Amino acid sequence: MSRAGLEKTPHEVASMFDGVAARYDLTNTVLAMRQDVRWRKLVAEALDLRAGQTVLDLAAGTGTSSEPFADAGVHTVPCDFSLGMLKVGNRRRPDLPFVAGDATRLPFADASFDAVTISFGLRNVVDVEAALAEMRRVTKPGGKLVVCEFSHPTWAPWRVVYTEYLMRALPSVARVVSSNPDAYVYLAESIRAWPDQRGLAAKLRQAGWTDVAHRNLSGGIVALHRAFR
Questions:
Q1: Sequence-distant (≥ 6) Cβ neighbours of residue 94 within 8 angstroms
Q2: Is residue 75 packed enough to be buried (19+ CB in 10 Å), middle (13-18) or exposed (0-12)?
Q3: pLDDT tens, position by position, for the chain (229 residues)?
Q4: How far is Cα 174 from Cα 153, in angstroms, rounded to an integer?
Q5: Which residue from 16, 50, 65, 218 has the fewest beta carbons nearer than 10 Å?
Q6: E strands, the chain, where?
Q7: SS3 sequence of 22-85
Q8: Is 205 exposed, middle or buried (0-12, 13-18, 19+ CB in 10 A)?
């Protein structure tokens, strides 16, 4: 089994996710102590889409993140560059139009979607600025972007506890439930190295997104960023 490094070489990241695809959703739910269910619900609420509208769900993996939109009648396109994830997703939800694609070179026309969202995938992209620009390109004028990503806890003592959990407990738990526990060492490292809430907001503005705002979830472990084209 493989694990990627923080240089985020695309084929290494894709291979790593191929290796965890079989038990990815179960592992995430265990590691997040079922908070992932609440986070997905809040993403759907932030997007506030109506039936018949279109949304691009990037880094969709097996399609779990896409289900709240699709089940509400929103035309949902799950997109991921891990073929292993897409194969699992196709078996789980054959009704969803899974697309293989790189976030830095999206295979969609300009202004194709009413909204774009990415949950826990932006920090795995080799060129975040290029990806944010591509997301803006495929979003209709006035459309919305919602990014759900791990961030920095706002209370210093909790931040220390959380960092210890990431680097010690998370890989240990992953050894019990994951098909590729070494991958979760990378995931812990990537979370720790990721910009804080203000840092990501700055990247969004630099990419041309407007009305950028964020909401802390679970004490800042996760942040929900919203922006408009």
A1: none
A2: middle
A3: 454 455 556 667 667 666 666 666 655 665 556 678 899 999 999 999 999 999 999 999 999 999 999 999 999 999 999 999 999 999 999 999 999 999 999 999 999 999 999 999 999 999 999 999 999 999 999 999 999 999 988 887 777 777 776 667 666 666 665 556 666 677 778 888 899 999 999 999 999 999 999 999 989 989 999 999 9
A4: 22
A5: 50
A6: 54-58, 75-80, 99-100, 113-119, 139-150, 210-217, 222-228
A7: HHHHHHHHHHCCCHHHHHHHHHHHHHCCCCCCEEEEECCCCCCCCHHHHCCCCEEEEEECCHHH
A8: middle
Reading the block at residue 183, the tokens are 């991958």
Question: Residue 116: phi, psi to the nearest 5?
Answer: -130, 140
pTM to 2 decimals? 0.85
